[in-house]
Each structure stands twice: as structure tokens, then as C-alpha cells.
Amino acid sequence: MLALKTNPCTKSSFYVFCNVNNDYGKMKFKLLLVCWILFVPKLLAGNYLFTEEVILDSLTNPWEIKQIDDDWIIFTQRNGLVNKFNLKTRELKTILDLRSEVEQIGESGLLGMEIYREKPNILYVYLVYTYDKYLDISNFSEKVVRFEFHDDTLINPKIIIDSIKAMGWHNGSRLLIGSDKKLYITTGDAYDKYLPQNINSINGKLLRLNLDGSFPEDNPFGNAVWSYGHRNAQGLVEVDGRLIISEHGPETDDEINIIQKGGNFGWPNVVGYCDDNYPGEKEFCQKNNVIEPVISLYPSGTLALCGLEYYGECSDTLWSRTFLLATQKDETLYAFKFDENYTKVISFTPILSGKYRRLRCVRKLNDGSILIGTSNRDFFKQPDKLILFTPSFLLNVDSDGTDGIQITQTTEEIHITSSFPANNCRAMFYNLLGQKQFEIEFKGSVCIPNSKLPKPNIYILKIYSEKETQSKVILIL
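Request: output the structure for the sequence above.
Response:
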């Protein structure tokens, strides 16, 4: 048995358990040890621990979530329903039914939403959805409509902007009211690559409007366009005065961009960085002052970036100033951070992968918990869910771990013992992709047969209870 420990100043102990009796075993051990040295320290740079609970099921592609007070949220479903849900009593209401008007093909339908409280007793709800404006399913449209929230219903619709070209995919549609009291709208290219570089088109853009739909006088081109050259941005937040978007790449190069007024972000002539991975990128960038993404992800594939949320300042140094990013094709929730000047991403960590499949939206709630919405009904014919995640620091759990949980291993099993025998505990094993492989709940102690886990492999073992948290890395051959 081999045991390796990191610097004690990190407050985390990494254990590698192995039993090597032959040359083949030694070869596997060397390979896995190299993986451990290269990847595990990065994965464990932070232990984003949380509890999770499915609070709503049998949904149809929830697309956006907003909190209207400490008890209630409202959310959109792509089939045309707007629902109100009580986080404490779990009461569910329908406050608007647009199913007879919304045109849902592919990933179109009722999409983004933003709320604005003009006065204590006046709440506006902005919705964006696709519909068959011209009675021609091959040429349908998208519009943003403002409603008034009154007595658990949405009334007095007012069109804010109309005639955005729509398709079954590439519709953008994330809404945000910024600190400047302007409405920002991401629009997709609607599968028309000529539109994003045309500043007179409203597709493939980040739009900026006054709250009544008129054009702000300080917009750069005298119309609704704030920035252009976008493909399909579905995440949008404002932090420290900066607008940040997450954007689907094509077969490669999902992007996270920091928006500049009047900026050209390159699509379709530039994919990701100005690096000539696609012919002519460098020349186009130089001639058109293209703004490169702060990070371009996975040049060998796409993650399908979607909802983006900023966790904000909090007492926990790990969660504080973290961005949360939902992905669909990759089926993962990521946590990432920028450097102090927002010039680069300094950490990018998977914190939930595979369990709930495609993830569409993410929202931090007033109490610090997080809501995630899935998007599986169309692709996998599975009902969608809202899942509530509560970071461990909100439960008075020490994310850095303690020495109270003891872990030992034999050639047959892993034995875990809590120093608090009456506590309910949970042990979870993750692979290096952040995918949960095995989970067990226990009280006091438990023996887990090694046969429960595919081998050989390296696993991240996370254990938490009411009073203790521990993270270990184990190698099983």
C-alpha cells in the first residue's frame, strides 16, 4: 500500500491506495500515477460541496428562473407556460399560458425572461418567445413582450421588439436589465451566417433597448444593436459593470466573452480566438478589430454553453465571486473564476456532471442556494426537473475538511468511520471527469467493497455529514 499526502497547509489529505503484484499492474499504476500528478491537483483546487434535491419534476424544458421574493420564483417552460412556485410550501401555479401562440420547433418556444420592479406594487415581466407571425412555419419570428404581474397572472401585454428572425435552433434569447436600466437581449443567427456581421440586422447580436422598447440615444449604431458577430449566446450576466456572455460554438470553440460597446466578436468569420484554426481568421480580425473571447473552450469539440450565473460575494472564499455555467452537450455544471482584472479565466472546475443530463438554466437564490433547470424532454424524451443545490458552507459544513472522518482500505474494501456515530453521512465517488460513480448514505461507519467501483481508476471521494466534510483522492487497481 502506498500513501501520498499533500502539503498540510492545504488542509486536505490525498491518499492513493494500491496493491501491485505484477508487471501489468505496475504499468497501470505508473499510468494512473501520472494522471494523478497532472490532473488531480487541478480538480481539487476547490471542493464545491453541496446538497441536492429535486423540487419539481414532469416539466417541459424550463428555460429561465427568476426570484420575485424570498418565498416565490417564477419560471418559463418552452411549451409556453409561465409558472409560479413557492420554495417553502412547494405550491405550483400557472400565471400565463401562451401555448396557443408560442411556436415550438426544435429548441424554439417560450425562452428568456427578465423582471423589473418599477415601484413596490408594480412588477413587470419581460418574455421572449417564437411564434408563427407570417403563417409560414419555415419563416417564423421571435418577439419580446412586457407583461404586468397582477393577482397571480400576467396582464396588459406590450410588444417591446418584434420581427427577430427565428428558427428551430440558434435563437439566443437571454434577457437582462442592466445597472443602466436598459434591457439587453441576446439574439441568435437563426442559421443565417450573413446576419451577425450586418449591423442593420438584429440577429446574431446583443441588443440594448430602453425599457419601453425605444432605442437609447447612446447606442453605437443608432439602432438596437449593442455588439455584433455573435452566434447563439444563451448566458448573460453583469458583474462590476461588465456584461459577460456564454456562447455556443459550432463544432468547436464555445466562448465566454466580455462585451464592449459596438464590439465585433467575429462570427461567422472567426471561431474562438484569432488563431487561423479556421482559414482567414487572423486577417479578418485585423481588418475588423475583432474582440477575442476571454476564453475559448475545447477546440476539439463543443460543450454547448447555456445558462450563466454569478454567485457574488459571500463568506466562503471558494464560492465567493464564482461564476456558474450550465452546459447541454457536456451535461455539466462548471464553476469558474476570472483574475482580478477580468483578463483571463484562472480556474474552471466541473462540480456536477452527467447525473441530470442536459442543463439549461442556473439561478442563485436570495438565501445562497442554487436552482438548476434541465432540458431533456426533447432530446431524451425524459421529463425535466428543477434541482435545488445548497452549498455546504450554508449548512455550517467546513468545506476544507476535518480529521474527524477516518478512511482505511484493504484489498477488498474501503472503510469509512465518522467521529460522530449518530450523524447521517453520505459518501460519493467521482471519476476524474467529475462524474459521480457511486454514492452511499450511512450513519457512523460503512464498509464499501472495492467491487462497487470500476478499476483500475483514480477516484475523488467526498464525504459529508452535519458536522464533518472530507475529500480524498484514492487509486484502486
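The radius of gyration is 24 Å.
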